[in-house]
Amino acid sequence: MKEMIKSEYAPFLTLEYMTTEEENKLFDRKSAGIKPSDLAPHISAFANAQGGTLIIGISDKTKKIEGINSYGNEKINSFLLAPKDCCKPMPNFKEEFLEVINYKGEKDRLLLLHIEASVDQVIRLTNDSTYLRIGDKSKELKGEDLRNLEYAKSTRHYEDECNEDADVIDLDQELIEAYKERIGAVGIDTEQMLRARGFIRRFHGEMHLTNAAVLLFAENPLQFYPNCRIRFVRYDGTSEMLGTQMNIVKDVNIEKPILRIIDDAKKFIATQLREFTALNPETGMFQSVPEYPEFAWLEGIVNAVTHREYGMSGRYIKVSMFDDRLEIESPGKLPNIVNIENIQTTRYSRNPRIARVLTEFGWVRGLNEGVKRIYSDMSAFYLEPPVYSEPEQSVKLTLKNNIEMRTMRQEERVSRCIDDDLWENMDSIERTILSYMAGRKIVSCAELAAFTGVSTKTISSRLRQLMDMNLVVANGNMRSPRLTYSLKRS
Asked: Would you tell me how many other CB atoms lie within 10 Å of the CB of residue 67?
């Protein structure tokens, strides 16, 4: 049975997964008919990225289980020697054979080469070409892209450096057990599991937890990293004011290990976002829509937590909420070959171990789905595209909630609900009034005057005309100073 066959080293690689899922940043399928030397670009690519698995014996074109037995021991041994013979330096890897039934109904095997991420070396081919795994492709790097990778690999990742002050007893045992369950390591000794996953390393002759282990699993990470937090600040208005004009109305710090901080941030920020009431042109009824699509702002936070530069002292993730936008700012520039122009199509993790754990917990998505969907979801909400920038050694994602742009797009919706001749005969003020009202259940004359920039006398006159057209109704006494108006529902 397919679901019973799975990798010991990467339990998510079940036979079902390997034969049905599309290739991604963590695995690639190859027929055993491939030349062993042709595996080299993929070995280099995985080693230079987050690591990954080459599955030999499944056709990358048809996904059929072909197996490896019919190709003989000599060729199988050549596959096993490919990391050594075809790459320099040889990356760390593990070999694994899985017993399967091939597409002919015969007993057979698959060979899995689990390529580990190279921490402080660039893994090249013997001809000096260099590859990087980006999404489901192994891309050759040249020029500036190659220089950026070489720069990134010149020192050890901060997440892999040892923390000499923390001990296993400082870790949240509930998180550790949840992680063991995710990776199929239930019942395995905690220290053994952490060593196997690279979260315990030798430093000056002694074994220590890495920064990644403490950031991910520590019960109180602020004891070791005061900047491991998300600060949420809500401002009154569209800009940050200082001194006597300070306009902060909410200032909250979310201080948790990485595996808890995203969920806590999600729950809290959801309580701070507003909802708008909009007219559905298909039903003629009002409905509530969130200020921003949840996926867009949550993915922004996930990316900030995953890819921030944790070694920058005194810097933290900041989420700023203004009347017209939400800003998510993360310490550190975009990593390596990722830049503002290619951010939708290119991935590279500054913290590959942290990224992998968050992937295993379902927070991080592959194949650039996350950033692409931020763009598509903002568009689906009739909002402007997200804006990425790099101010002062940080990455900022800005999600705009442009009220004027929202009203312009709302005007398009309202026009579809009104007779064409009637709409064409209206002036711009009348159209603006209807469009603004379509996003609110009730409005006042003063509110409309402030929004349109015309006098209350003019607004009152236009409202009376719209009432005569049977499009607007008054709520209450016409002489009341608190009189409000609504769109007339069909």
From this structure: 24
Structure-block tokens of residue 96: 């694994």
Of 241, 254, 400, the closest CA to residue 318 belongs to 254
The full set of domain ranges for the chain reads: 2-154, 159-223, 230-401, 406-487
Tell me the per-residue pLDDT of 306-325, one tens digit each, with 9 for 90 and over. 988 887 777 899 999 998 89
Q: Which CATH architecture has domain 230-401?
A: 2-Layer Sandwich (3.30)
Of the listed ranges 208-212, 264-268, 314-318, the least confidently predicted one is 314-318
pTM: 0.57
Class for domain 406-487, per CATH?
Answer: mainly alpha
* Sheet (strand 200-203) strand order: 162-163, 206-210, 200-203
Mean pLDDT to the nearest integer, 398-425: 74
Topology of domain 2-154, CATH: 3.30.950
| Strand 137-140 versus strand 131-134 pairing type | antiparallel
Other CB atoms within 10 Å distance of the CB of residue 62: 12
Look at residue 154 and tell me whether its pLDDT is greater than 50. no
User: Are both 230-401 and 406-487 of the same fold?
Assistant: no
What is the C-alpha to C-alpha distance for residues 352 and 366, in angstroms, rounded to an integer? 13
C-alpha–C-alpha distance, residues 486 and 321, integer Å: 29
Number of neighbouring beta carbons within 10 Å of residue 388? 19
Of 54, 32, 33, give the one whose Cα is nearest residue 43: 54
- Say whether pLDDT at 271 is over 50: yes
At 85, list the tokens: 């013979």
> In this predicted structure, what is the pLDDT of residue 480?
85
